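Entry 14. Two folds queued back to back today. First construct below, sequence then structure tokens.
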Amino acid sequence: MTQLSRRAAEMAATFMIGDGLLGLLQPSRHIALWQERAGGAQWLVRPFIGRPTLRRAYGVAQIAAGLALAARQRAITERS
């Protein structure tokens, strides 16, 4: 894995953790932000409209996946 792809994976992990945390703590506000005229992202939040508990659960999954991705990148870096 190249240094550039490691950095891209780390950036993706950071995004996943941050977006997951916002979705966990402020699901309704976060969904409302992306509901309209969001450059195509509005279809991603459609399943969560009016369902803050579902968005919170998805937020937990995002955080876990982001942390797993970041941990994997650290392990690869340590072997290099």
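Second construct, same run, same settings:
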Amino acid sequence: MAPWFSLRWFTPGQWQQFHFDHPLALYAIPAVLLLFGLRYLLHRGAGQRLSLSFSPRTSPRRDLLDSVLNRLRYLLPLSAFMAVALILVALARPQIIREQKENQSEGIDIMLAMDVSSSMTEKDLKPDRLTAAKRVAQTFIADRQNDRIGLVIFAGEAFSLCPLTTDNALVKQYLNQVNHHIIRTSGTAIGDALARCINRMRESHAKSKVVILLSDGDNTAGSLDPITAARLAKAFDIKVYTIVIGRPPKGAASATQTTDEGILKTIASISEGSFYRAGDVGKLQRIFAEINRLEKAPVRTQVYQDVQDYYRVYLYWALAFLLLALLLKNTIFGNILED
């Protein structure tokens, strides 16, 4: 910072940075100015004055010098006013406050289980089911800054691709690498995928544990029954949201008659989660938005303030003006007839 005697302390830019702890003291400055003005008006005609002149001879140059000397007499009341005004500024306590906010959240553990079987290349969702699911999932992940997120992929087998982590960029990087060729075994192992998610979360102490399972088919592979996996999830207080991706097969009288909904509805029901069907990208986005809204952990915001006081600067200036006033009082600029 600048030294106290710098004129920078009186610039508008500097004053805009200040927060005044007692701003009412500043309102007294116009009152002091008014008192000085009243004193001048009341004593202007009645006061005794001494005129300053260096020579009885008159000349334009001499008259100008005498006029300047007489006007310099106003330095004394001006210095006194500045001293009082700066004392009031110091009493207002000018401060510069720097705030730092820190958001704290208990967070939620979320495992994303994504079907990567060959049927996910169907194009009823643009550009295809898997790409649409990846894009919407990435947007969802970007909004979960305080949560741990992991990734499981499955087709005929299930693999844990990314463990629970708060590094959202890492999760999104793994998600970008997902494609329908990554698992060669055909089928849809929903039970095994759910078991992989449970295994990642069983020792978690998070307040809320969630699995989001996306698939477009019935359970046709794997060694673990999905109903058993759902009961395990319930035992570990894990809530499962199941999402069927794709439009109902042609020839089905209604969406409820498709073979891929029954098991996913049962899993959601057992684990006290919810079941959804995403027939288009817009619906899939709304589903993730709803899950995002339902699974929110309270965030506590702590504000740290670094407060620096600068009243001493203006006290030093006030003392300087006060000393100047006392000095002027004992020179030719003081009116000894009014003392």
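Quick look at the second one. Residues 252-259 have pLDDT under 50 and may be disordered. The chain has two domains: 7-99+305-338, 107-297.
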